[in-house]
Amino acid sequence: xxxKNEIGFIENLRPFPYKNYENIDLNSLVVYSIDFLEKKGVxxxxxxxxxxxxxxxxTKFSLIKYEKYPDAARINRALLQCRPKYQNLLLGDVRMxxxxxxxxxxxxxKTKILLEKPNLQKNLPKSEVKRTFSSKxxxxxxxNKTAFKKFxxxxxxxxxxxxxxxxxxxxxxxxxxxxxLQWENRFNFIKKDKTLLELFNFIKKxxxxxx
Length: 211
Hints:
- By secondary structure, the chain is mainly α.
- Helices cover 54% and strands 7% of the residues.
- The protein folds into two domains: 120 residues, Winged helix-like DNA-binding domain superfamily/Winged helix DNA-binding domain (Arc Repressor Mutant, subunit A, Orthogonal Bundle); 76 residues, no CATH class.
- The chain is elongated and about 55 Å long.
- The chain is built from eleven helices and four strands; from the N terminus they run H-H-H-H-E-E-H-E-E-H-H-H-H-H-H.
């Protein structure tokens, strides 16, 4: 359960200068955030990890076009990639909380060095300098989602809530405010695509409880 003083502590965190983390991958930044919270005695739940990652590294973890808000879906994907099935940096989940593995501890140590000495990042693969928004790419990705495939296949009734989560890049724990922003972010660029527009209107009616 969240302690009362945790919210104020996290909200007052100051970000690293972008040059200090611009070429560090997302997974490393997320496990750094988790280690940071653990050492401060803060609960390692999804909300705390999400906001801390955003506060410390805003350029990497903000929503496209809504830089003042964290991209919870992006952070969630990084957490999934840190699990044993992939990079084995973290144990746990969004319900029970997280803990670092031995590999995770080692990654944090390396990340701390890179944050303190950004000149060492020159040998790292170049990360994204700026997150860009490509409507063509986004449309293609949406049309590869299960919800879209079921919709065009006239399999409307079998579109599940999990298909919607995948389409929207959200989780069962995403706040209503975040979901609204994700919806607006997508709805604004699908308006000219008739089929996607019909799909989104269908989802809005069928899954009212999500929104």
